[in-house]
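Ticket opened by: R.M.
Priority: normal
Category: complex prediction / small molecule

The reporter submitted a protein together with flavin-adenine dinucleotide and asked that the result be attached to this ticket for the collaborator who will pick it up next week. Submitted input follows.
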Amino acid sequence: MERKLYTAHLLNKSLLSESAQCYHLEFEVAGEERFDFLAGQFVSTVAMDGRGKQQTRAYSIASAPRGNQFDLCLNRVEGGFFSNLLADLTPGQDVQFHGPHGLFVLPQPLTDIVMIATGTGIAPMRSFVEQVFPSETEDRSEGRAIWLVYGTRHETELYYQKYFERIAAAHPNFHYVATLSRPQEGWSGLRGYVQQHVRTCLENYQGMHLPSGEGASLPLHAYICGLNDMVSANRELLKEMGLEKKQIHFERYD
Ligand SMILES: Cc1cc2nc3c(=O)[nH]c(=O)nc-3n(C[C@H](O)[C@H](O)[C@H](O)COP(=O)(O)OP(=O)(O)OC[C@H]3O[C@@H](n4cnc5c(N)ncnc54)[C@H](O)[C@@H]3O)c2cc1C
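Result attached by the on-call engineer:
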């Protein structure tokens, strides 16, 4: 099937982390009044490599729908083709893509949610959070409890930290849990891998919803995004803690 190719025009670019070479890119879709997608979906960027071979890579959209614009969050992969092409773009330059694609989207109607991310796996979570809490004063959460458990190695790689903290301060039902696996001296926050903090969140949650410790499945959906090992570890944990397959959604980047 012929896929419609769009042109994304880079409007703004900012460096989120020098050490991880991670960038936030803001695009507008050339010639389109709107670019509609569901929070959590991805686009497939397309370009020719040096040998004239067409290359395609998926990138999660890191923003909620916003007219004809969308954001990406990506880091350079050493020796990688597309991540370096995108990281080297400068405002005013274009890249082609098709999409949106993917089923990594919020449940309808909304339930309680736990989001679990590492590194640039935060991209679709930023889209979800923008969708559910469009600003400090706007709230589409319908009172659902929403957790974001986010892990990286170093503090400099906690992308969008101030944004999530601001939203959490304004919306008491949004809980931002950041953890570092290799914190530097002076870090007073949580330590260790995301799994251990997901377990704590779920234990508290089970305590609230299943006082007897048994019964029907929890009214909760989990969204996991990042590299394969972390995704697998969290899927196992969630199953062990009583979530059913249909409640566990994941996006693997490698
Ligand atoms: C649905 C989906 C959504 C994605 N969303 C994002 C996103 O929002 N942000 C983002 O940064 N990436 C995202 N990715 C990963 C992205 O598609 C590319 O795989 C990544 O940018 C590397 O592409 P490349 O062309 O630079 O490397 P390639 O030339 O494809 O590979 C170079 C080397 O890097 C290894 N590699 C491939 N992917 C990764 C990776 N993700 N991390 C580390 N090493 C890797 C390969 O095994 C290979 O050895 C997503 C992937 C999927 C499937």
